[in-house]
From TrEMBL:
It comes from Lentilactobacillus parakefiri. GO terms for molecular function: hydrolase activity. This is Alpha/beta hydrolase. Residues 49-243 form the BD-FAE-like domain. The keyword Metal-binding does not apply. Keywords: Hydrolase. Pfam families: BD-FAE.
Length: 284
């Protein structure tokens, strides 16, 4: 068969810029250098306006981090008009908290410093993540303006963001450990803090979003599965209640029958909810 067709140019093509080093931190027991990387998903150059950006933080119990594993699922948000930046952060074998938060803020500053290259609007930034990455998104959001977590390069850039979307994110490490339906992952909280959470409330407090919430906290969209056996769904409800009590704009969705890291969160219906929330707060 031979045929000539006329194709309408109805959507931009997409680029993937993979494994971009955004920071260098101490590696192997402080004796080497560890490159921290991110991957950018974006539309072809030449768009009429700079686009809002979503930073994505994957899960893995702070024990393992693969910032590229969810890229196919994140394309929906690029098609919806967002640049997506998927971020590697140090696991708990490499550094204890708050190293992960420091990494998140370093990635934000790096992308803002290269806003023109990636055609992003640095004043329209969302953070989204799952499980341990959801915790990181929440913590980065509630610590807007907390300069002690800005360490490294591009300190002339602000790490402040405009909204957070945690998926089944850990909230309070001690509560997550004690109230989980499974004790298979109890060790991850000690590894994250560098000590048993039961014995060190001061460390728990520094890794708990509740510590930092105030009436200036940015909007949250919280997603959690009703049947999550790893991270207690009740912890997300308490986070939502705390946000609301401070007058923060927050939405909370429980996915009926949803389990931890469930593919239900990747379904078009959920993507539509997320995009609507993003558009409401970030689209011009």
């Amino acid at each position: 068969m031979k045929k000539a067709i006329s194709v309408a140019n109805t959507r931009p093509g997409l680029w993937q810029d993979t494994n971009v080093t955004y920071a260098q931190v101490p590696g192997w027991l402080g004796h080497s250098t560890l490159n921290l990387e991110l991957t950018v998903l974006r539309q072809f150059e030449g768009q009429p306006h700079a686009l809002p950006v979503i930073f994505w933080f994957g899960g893995g119990g702070w024990m393992t981090v693969d910032h590229n594993v969810h890229l196919p699922n994140l394309v929906d948000f690029v098609r919806a008009g967002y640049v997506v930046v998927s971020v590697q952060y140090r696991n708990s074998n490499q550094a204890v908290w708050p190293a992960q938060l420091i990494d998140a803020k370093a990635a934000i500053r790096y992308i803002k410093a290269h806003a023109e290259k990636y055609q992003i609007d640095p004043s329209r930034v969302a953070l989204m993540g799952e499980s341990a990455g959801g915790h990181l998104a929440s913590m980065a959001a509630v610590t807007n303006g907390q300069k002690q977590f800005d360490v490294g390069d591009y300190l002339d850039q602000s790490s402040d963001i405009q909204l957070a979307i945690p998926w089944y994110g850990v909230v309070n490490p001690l509560s997550a450990k004690q109230n989980s339906a499974s004790d298979d992952f109890d060790f991850v909280y000690r590894n994250l803090l560098g000590a048993k959470p039961e014995d060190h409330p001061e460390l728990v407090a520094q890794a708990d979003p509740h510590t930092f919430i105030n009436d200036q906290t940015i909007p949250f969209l919280i997603l959690h599965g009703s049947d999550d056996e790893v991270v207690p769904v009740e912890d997300s409800r308490k986070l939502y209640d705390d946000l609301i009590s401070h007058g923060v704009d927050a939405d909370y969705y429980v996915l009926e029958g949803g389990q931890h890291m469930d593919e239900l969160f990747m379904q078009p219906e959920v993507v539509k909810i997320i995009v609507a929330f993003l558009n409401h707060h970030l689209k011009e």
